[in-house]
Amino acid sequence: MNSVFWFTRDLRLNDNPALNQAILDSRQGKVFACYCLDRDWFESLSAIRANSLVASLQSLKLALGGALNIVWADESNKIAAVVANFAKANAATKVYASKSFVPAFAAVQASLSSLIELILVGSDYAVDPGNVKKPADGLNYRVYTPFYRAWLQVGWPQPVHFAGNSSSFAFSNLGESWPELDATSTVAIKAGEDFALRTLDRFMRTRADHYDENRNRADIGGTSHLSHALAHGEIHPRTILSRLSDSKGHEVFRKEIAWREFYADVLHNYPNTETEYYNERFAQMRYDTGPKAEAKLLAWQEGKTGYPMVDAGMRQLNTTGWMHNRVRMIVASFLVKDLHIEWIHGAKYFESKLTDFDPASNAHGWQWTAGCGTDASPYYRIFNPIGQGLKFDPNGDYVRKYVPELAHLGGAAVHEPWLEIDGYQNGYVGQIVDHAAERAESLARLEEIKIDIAD
Ligand SMILES: Cc1cc2nc3c(=O)[nH]c(=O)nc-3n(C[C@H](O)[C@H](O)[C@H](O)COP(=O)(O)OP(=O)(O)OC[C@H]3O[C@@H](n4cnc5c(N)ncnc54)[C@H](O)[C@@H]3O)c2cc1C
Fold first, then answer.
1. CATH classification code of 125-159+193-269
2. Domain segments of the chain: what residues?
3. CA 211 from chain center: how many Å?
4. CA-CA 20 to 30 A from 287: which of 69, 180, 361, 366?
């Protein structure tokens, strides 16, 4: 019997139990590999994000000896129908895939299963969302630290090797045209399973031991940069976790991998929180709208707020498709608490730009920073964008790299150009708001929805 392996967020051969299952079950027939692109969605991506996906697909195609078929869905022919049609046209009776926990995609998988036999194996998490429960009442965790302890207890199996070889996949003449690289972006994107495994090796050799000390520093490459590979499934978190010991650096890194799993678990339990407030009380808060707010949103998007650390972060995002985690928090706090704009506008902008976009981590990273998410802290954090810059980019190298108008300033002076006689000589913009005043305003608005606050 022929079968189809439908690649989704698992663009790899190794440690892919669903792919192994398809190969083992189809020894008497052929396995056709396919990836389905939704045309409207693909066309909505920024050039860098679109190219990062194309680079991942090209690399997978190479690993499959060329036998990766692209099929396109559109308004009239939805993903589930397109995948089912591709299977039937190739005389395949089953479709295999990794189980998705992204709410919209889980719905697509459900509708595919009504069209053809769909075998879902594994997921892109070490522990499938929904499987970490409080022993006392069987409910899900709403706070990270106890989730982390219980997640470790549940545990996960060792990674599995690819069960096939270069002749495991059959060519189909029913594949459609490949997506083109968007020439408006000249950013070179490295992608693929081999690159992800090499990135992990390099991280383990050079950075993992000092991850706990360096991960917050925007100016030094102290983190793994594995987020693109995880978002596209070029590496499974199990493969990463299997390399970690109990040392301090490794333990802190394991906890970050667990944040990804925690947010997936939260989104699985509260699927509406991809776009709606996790803490509903915050939907009542006063937020700014209208032309003035839109102008501020645009200044934030373009990295022209007059706050160097915020502007450097947004320009890093716009030019590379990635932003350092500490800086994601700084720019998110600035949008919500200094500009009083709802988190969803920031989350949507991130979605259009991030090559590591992940629905759960993005929505809940935003909600956590906005104060309406899964934060156990009784404090309402308002990041000081200047203080954060001085602390996490102490020599100013990060800001100088992304904000050329400030490159003439030495050391930490880049964080406070208003103190320098020549601070604005190269055209850097003035501050669009006053942080101290907006902080007070933010706390006043918080008071209106009567959340307990502390400073
Ligand atoms: C507002 C906001 C939006 C975010 N949006 C995304 C997103 O769309 N996609 C995404 O992958 N991450 C997102 N994050 C989390 C985090 O910023 C990135 O995972 C991290 O910067 C990726 O770089 P890295 O691979 O070098 O991370 P490392 O520090 O090397 O961490 C290793 C891996 O752990 C996971 N991880 C680390 N920190 C977090 C975290 N705070 N939350 C969830 N997972 C984490 C990621 O998968 C990451 O690749 C967001 C954070 C914030 C504050």
1. 1.25.40.80
2. 2-123, 125-159+193-269, 280-448
3. 20
4. 361
Query: pLDDT tens digit string along 74-89?
Result: 988 899 999 999 999 9
Report which ligand 1 atom has the smallest distance to the Cα of 230.
47
Is 2-123's fold the same as 280-448's? no
Q: Is 340 in the pocket of ligand 1 (CB under 6 A)?
A: no
pLDDT tens digits, 125-141: 999 999 999 999 999 99
pLDDT band per the 50, 70, 90 thresholds, residue 183: confident
Residue 120 bridge partners (DSSP):
97
Mean pLDDT computed over 252-281: 97
Q: What is the pLDDT of residue 380?
A: 87
Q: Does residue 111 have its Cβ closer than 6 Å to ligand 1? A: no
Distance CA(425)–CA(420), nearest Å, equals: 10
Q: Among the atoms of ligand 1, which is closest to the Cα of residue 263?
A: 43
pLDDT of residue 454: 42
CB atoms within 10 A of CB 244: 15
* Residue type for position 154: V
Q: For residue 455, what pLDDT is reported?
A: 35
**Locus of tokens 């930490």:** 412
Percent of the chain with pLDDT over 90: 91
Task: Please identify, by atom number, the ligand 1 atom nearest to the C-alpha of residue 368.
Answer: 53
Q: Whose CA is nearest to atom 20 of ligand 1?
A: 325
Question: 357 CB less than 6 Å from ligand 1?
Answer: yes
The pLDDT value given to residue 332 = 98
In the predicted structure, residue 452 carries a pLDDT above the cut 70 = no
The reply to whether ligand 1 has any atom less than 6 angstroms from the CB of 249 is no
**Mean pLDDT of the chain, nearest integer:** 95
**How far away, in angstroms, is 310 Cα from ligand 1 center?**
18
- Establish whether residue 299 lines the binding site of ligand 1, counting it when its CB lies within 6 angstroms of any ligand atom: no
For residue 362, give the H/E element and its range. helix 359-370
CATH of domain 280-448: 1.10.579.10
> Average pLDDT, stretch 93-119?
97
Q: Is residue 58 packed enough to be buried (19+ CB in 10 Å), middle (13-18) or exposed (0-12)?
A: middle
Sign of the alpha-carbon torsion through 105, 165, 3, 65: positive
Q: How far apart are the first and last CA of the chain?
A: 65
Q: How far is residue 365 from each of residues 114, 264, 302, 380, 382, measured CA to CA in Å?
A: 34, 11, 21, 15, 15
Q: Which fold has domain 2-123?
A: Rossmann fold (3.40.50)
Angstrom distance (rounded) from CA 368 to CA 364: 6
